[in-house]
Amino acid sequence: MIRELQAQDFESLLQLYTHLHEKSVPESSPRRDALRDRILSDPDYHIIVAEEDGRIVSSCVCVIVPNLTHDLRPYALIENVVTHADYRGRGLATACLDYAKQIALRENCYKMMLMTGSKLESTLRFYERAGYSSADKTAFNQWL
């Protein structure tokens, strides 16, 4: 089942992020709870999850960014694409990205952007198969 995250899924999502790049789940704190509530109440912030066997096993984030160019059309930013190691190769991340695309289309976005830190050919081919191109833009990061 592909759907948007609900409050009761939050701990499962944090566990899933240990399959992305996190080393551990952040401890419960007022700061973490406030961030959870802020994210869940933001109509432009969508955490898409794939659920199998009652478990959150794949996810991506789609943020709709208001924009003053391109005829005032927003764009979508895709982040934190992850699938639990035991569930990879089943099309779950692709289904999450497809769900994100439907949100972007519904919101009249003119483009979707996604960056990856992976240099693995398999990961790069995965994003290309999902419809993303690395040929037309150059991305830069400045870590703070």
Structure description:
The chain is of the alpha+beta class and 144 residues long. It has one domain (2-129): Aminopeptidase, CATH 3.40.630.30. It is built from 4 helices and 5 strands, in the order βααβββαβα. It has a 5-stranded mixed beta sheet, with helices on both faces. A hairpin with a 2-residue loop joins β2 (45-52) and β3 (55-65). The longest helix has 15 residues, at 92-106. It is globular and about 40 Å long. The mean pLDDT is 95.
In short:
The chain has 144 residues and is an alpha+beta fold. Helices cover 30% and strands 24% of the residues. A five-stranded mixed sheet has the order 1-2-3-4-5, with helices on both faces.
Envelope shape: globular
Task: State mean pLDDT (0 to 100 scale).
Answer: 95
Cα distance, first to last residue? 36 Å
How many domains make up the 3D coordinates? 1
| Rg estimate, integer Å | 15 Å
Specify the CATH homologous superfamily. Answer: Gcn5-related N-acetyltransferase (GNAT)
The CATH class turns out to be Alpha Beta
